[in-house]
Amino acid sequence: MTGIEIKIARIKLGIKSYELAQMIGINPDAMSRIENDRLKPSQDLLDKITTTFTVKTRQNGAI
Fold first, then answer.
1. Alpha carbon of 56 to those of 1, 16, 24, 37, 38: distances in Å?
2. Would the pLDDT of 41 be above 70?
3. What is the dihedral of CA 9, 21, 27, 3, to 10 degrees?
4. Average pLDDT estimate for 23-39
5. pLDDT digits (tens, 9 = 90+) for 8-27
6. Phi, psi for 20 (deg, rounded to 5)
7. What GO MF annotations does this protein's record show (predicted)?
8. pTM of the full predicted structure?
9. Could you tell me if 20 and 49 are in contact, meaning their C-beta atoms sit under 8 angstroms apart?
10. Percent of the chain whose pLDDT exceeds 90
């Protein structure tokens, strides 16, 4: 998952960048760098992002 894909998914789910950062346990600056492809997230962090998106999607009733 690229930074732009993360950003698009986040926006579609109505999550602010700082909120996602808080949910996955990183600082907002790191989240910004990830979304702008200036920082490559670890696999563990990508797993946390994916899990967060899945949970949020289910909460919104989209699945």
1. 17, 12, 13, 23, 25
2. yes
3. -10
4. 98
5. 999 999 999 999 999 999 99
6. -65, -45
7. DNA binding
8. 0.89
9. yes
10. 89
